[in-house]
Amino acid sequence: MDPEVLEDWARKLRGLMTLAGLLFAILLLRLFHLQITTADDYAKESEDNRITQKRLKAPRGLILDRDGEVIARNRAAYSIQLIRGSRESDAQAIAALEEATGESVKLGKRGRERTVRLKRDVSFPTVAIVEERLRDEWPLDVEIEPQRFYPFGALTSHLIGYLGEKQDDLTGPGGRPYIAGDYVGQTGLERVYEDSLRGWDGVGYLEVDVRERVIKEHPFPDRERAPRPGRDLKLTIDVDIQLAAVNALPDSLAGSVVALDARNGAILALVSHPSFDPNVFVSYGSQAERQRLIQDPRKPMLNRGIQGGYPPGSTLKMIASVAALESGVTDTLSTFAACAGSLQVGDVVFRCLNRDGHGELNLLEATEVSCNIYFNHLAQILGIEAWHDYAARFGFGAPTGVDLEPSELSGILPDRRYHQERDGWVTGHLMNLVIGQGAMLVTPLQMARYVAALGNGGYLVTPHLQGDAPPPVRIEGVSDATLDIVRRSMYRVVYGDHGTGKRAQIEGILLAGKSGTAQGPRADDDAWFVSFAPYDEPEIAVAILIEGGGGGGTHAAPVARAVMEAYFLDQARHGAMAVDLDGRHRGGS
Amino acid sequence: MRRELDLGLLVAVAMLVTFGVTMVYSASGSDVWRSQGLYAVISVFVAVAIVYVPEKLFYDLAYPLYGLGMLSLVVVLVWGTGNPARWLAIGSLRLQPAEFAKIATIMAIARFLGDQSSERVSGPRAIVLAVLLAVLPMGLVARQPDLGTAVSFGAALIPMLYWAGMRPLHVFFLTAPMLSVVFSFEPLWQDQAPIVFALFIILSSVIIQLLLARLWVTLTLLGVNLSAGLVTTYLWANFLRGYQKARIMTFLNPESDALGSGWNIIQSKIAIGSGGPTGKGFLQGTQSKYEFLPAAHTDFIFSVIGEELGFVGSIFVLSLFLFVIWRCLYVGTVANNRFASLLAVGLGSMLAFHVFVNVGMTIGVMPVTGLPLPFLSYGGSSLLTNCLAVGLLLHIYAHRHEY
Ligand SMILES: [Zn+2]
Fold this sequence. Notes:
The complex is a heterodimer.
Chain A: H1 3-37, H2 39-50, E1 51-56, E2 63-64, E3 70-83, H3 87-101, E4 115-119, H4 124-134, E5 140-149, H5 157-160, E6 163-165, E7 170-171, E8 177-178, E9 183-185, H6 188-192, H7 194-198, E10 202-208, E11 214-217, E12 233-234, H8 239-248, E13 255-261, E14 267-273, H9 287-295, H10 304-307, H11 317-326, E15 342-345, E16 348-351, H12 363-369, H13 372-382, H14 384-393, H15 416-420, H16 427-433, H17 444-455, E17 459-460, E18 473-474, H18 480-495, E19 512-518, E20 526-533, E21 540-546, H19 552-574
Parallel strand pairs in A: 2-12
Antiparallel strand pairs in A: 1-10, 2-3, 3-4, 3-5, 6-9, 7-8, 10-11, 13-14, 13-21, 15-16, 17-18, 19-20, 20-21
Helix pairs in contact in A: 3-4, 8-19, 11-13, 11-14, 12-18, 13-16
Chain B: H1 7-28, H2 32-50, H3 57-79, E1 88-90, E2 93-95, H4 97-115, H5 118-121, H6 124-142, H7 147-164, H8 168-184, H9 186-189, H10 193-212, H11 215-238, H12 242-252, H13 263-275, H14 286-289, H15 301-334, H16 338-362, H17 380-398
Antiparallel strand pairs in B: 1-2
Bound molecules: zinc ion.
């Protein structure tokens, strides 16, 4: 070629190579920045990519009855997870899952997490479909998590309460975080003991590929932390007694049974009927069932034992007895004006159960036959202040402090002021109150504690479901002599010729009790029976309530008998287990 | 007949190809490296065989091959397979006509410009015809759609025009508005578009002022650039509906968004950055092994090199490429005629463009366009085409003393 041309080309070569050199310099600088200056940041991002931190969910602690029977345990639940990609691939994977299972799937809101739970607690066939057919082709996976299970279902639901799903992430006590979707105690013991039951979650690591398929388990064994299960909760409850109580209650009526250890307040049974299966609150897809429970007019979710307020009827008469005996208004032998079946005060007529009248009665006889007129007379002499004072000492009008529910009902213990503020004070109010009517409202648990105190020598116990018994408190101003008379009156209720509580009798065990037939808001009277046994050294105190159950002696007393029978049968079975827990106050009676 | 081979070029390309098969093996984790190896052997053999083709053959074949190339591009638009449709299936063979059309087009432009004298090339008629030769395949390839490849025709044309005698100022005025459109196009650069565009405007003005020292020329260029960029931005922002924009985005970048915006680039940068100075070691790259990096053995093979061999490996590969590019252009300066010289420059420019755009994409300085990395990316058509080009260069070098 022409040398001039060659020189021109050589010049242009230098020009083009300068341009190429500039472009390559850009690449070089950028590479230097990525691989030298900021290499550590990218190394970390690369590790974040392939290392997945996995929360190892701690199983909740077990809940056991006093004999070690498991009331709440954990089962394995399977969830279908989606490993997120683009919107389209997510939608395709969901469509594939829907087609394979024939059920619709909803994808929740998009968060930052790489995996999202599509279906929780699925059936085993669904797990098999995903494992065998879908997992290789779609970004779907199966996860196992511990899920609460209540083997006794409705039997213990009001005690245990139930769990609910957390909607948002938040930090719980002790810096232990809740993640949205975690189950948390909503009511009952699950709520009260949430912190010790839930345990401490662990941390694990997995080396995964982009579809979260596991390449290597435990890439950092020393960084992992095993989950610590929640603490087990051993209850004072006995499921055998609980079961006997449920079986003895009429199925068609609402009601409640409370059985306490009369010596220390340990709750042996706490039944509220109708009940519900707490498992529906932790099994996915039971939304309709939960809704039905919440809207059920029979209120199965209400724990009637501590949240139901009822007029106690004649079961409350022993308060008047104690007050009258302590203030010297009467004694064992004295009798008041004869019962003629009714009593007119002003323009109000008070009636006795026996329309023909009981005639002249002393306190023991009046309690045995449950004569209202006798106690009406007593009230007129006693006065509201004295009566209210003693009722308060036996714990009415205040929560018992049971370790179950912050929403425990206090009930209503009216005093003079209560009526002055509402409908004005007349003595007629007190005449109603002494027989457990009027504005008086109690919970079955308050009644059980009251009857326990009458039986155990005047000690007010704190009802509790687990742990050490709070020390019982001797009720002041109630002498042993007074209690002895009242106990004898209650003995006659069960064993007297005219006793209203004969149906509570148990073969081989002496007991005492009191029936009640209370006029509540319902068309039919509420049936009550309270009792303690054995008569000499009470171990168990029982309160029975049946809404609209009619006569307490007829309908509630047999339930009390069934509960106490179950208790003594259980004691006999465990023989030597009857440990003397209450040496402090047993000598009282 | 003994021919003198350009051993430097041949050895450098052989190293790149061997290295490519090795990295495809590492990146794919499957058997695809075998077919790549087979292609490599065939391709290098073809490259050397071309040396022995008679001198005048390529000059004579330039226009017929161009016609054939255009025909195949039309055919692929009608009967193409794949998504997007870029391949022609002949039996079990899958070919990418655009790859061969690149060489055919460069040959045709080289022949056309080679037939003109330097003086004629500085006139408008020759320039317009040369541009038309490039615009035809650009349009056909853009219809596939494959914007990266379409632009690469232009990237080869400009240096060839310059080489053939077009005055640098005219080259500048031809190129600048096109670059203005590209640099101001928001979908390509996202929120960095204003910075990229401003940098380009300032740089081009400064360069032209320094070269010519005539203010009115600089101001004219500035005006042309600004209006091209602003019109582009204005049209994009105001005259397109959402779905139209979406279609243009897909057109620009059909494969890029499979896993959400910027996933490829983020993962590629993580791969390269996490490689550090010396890399994680051959076969040890977790980004590609665990499939965080999409298209690891095709478009993003450089990311695998960066991850497993680090800065050292990246520099090694870039140095080899720079050497090969220099060697191509150097062959252009020793060719025995204008056609051969222009052919060498066109092929070298095409190679340089591919390397810059592909590597730039993997480190986030260029948009995602789906251009393969020559000699290294998996793909038979691309490898064969690039080795054909090398064969042509070897041929030009071997015949440099004839005439
Ligand atoms: Zn009477």
